[in-house]
Amino acid sequence: MISPFNSPVEVGVRVLAVLVESYPRALDLGQLVMLDHLVLNTADVNGPESLHPPLPTRIGQLTTKRASVSRGIRVLLSAGLAEAFATADGLTYLAGDPSIRFLNLLESAYAARLHERATWVISEFGDLSEEELRTQFRSIFDAWVEEFDAYERTRDDL
After folding, report:
1. Residue 5 to residues 9, 10, 52, 89: CA-CA distances in angstroms?
2. What predicted TM-score, i.e. pTM, was given to this entire model?
3. Do the beta carbons of residue 16 and residue 102 sit within 8 Å?
4. How many CB atoms are closer than 10 A to CB 41?
5. Total domains in the fold of the chain
6. Are 81 and 96 in contact (CB under 8 A)?
7. Residue 3 covered by a domain
8. Which H or E run includes 28?
9. Rounded percentage of the chain residues whose pLDDT exceeds 70
10. Which long-range contacts (CB under 8 A, 24 or more apart) does 126-133 make?
11. Range of the structural domain that residue 144 is part of
12. Measured between alpha carbons, how far is 28 from 154 in angstroms, rounded to an integer?
């Protein structure tokens, strides 16, 4: 069965929110993977309440996120909502002209919260290079490992 969560369309919409907020700065796949993760888990970095619940296994989500973000980007490119550019360092992605109009059509509470989280993440982390983002993630990982270890100890006590 295909999971309804993190479908290419859902991930694509989240990535599009990040690209719109970072415009006119283009982002590469590595940056989009980390920024998408931050959009979902803003509370982990002293931001607003996270978009998704703080599951103890969220550290493992990063292992599959690159593939899901790639699929989401393909959806955006095929719909004309994002553009890809080849640079000396590889491909970068930029929000296309109709992107903001498309996002404005989304009127759910989730879409509003997504917009708020994407705005916050880009204001806090949007100017960081991929290497600087990786450094930030190392400190987040340390906290997650401690949290996961505590969760596992609690489960073992049951």
Report:
1. 10, 7, 11, 31
2. 0.84
3. yes
4. 23
5. 1
6. yes
7. no
8. strand 27-28
9. 79
10. 126/21, 126/22, 126/25, 126/35, 127/25, 130/28, 130/30, 130/31, 130/34, 133/30, 133/31, 133/34, 133/35
11. 8-157
12. 39
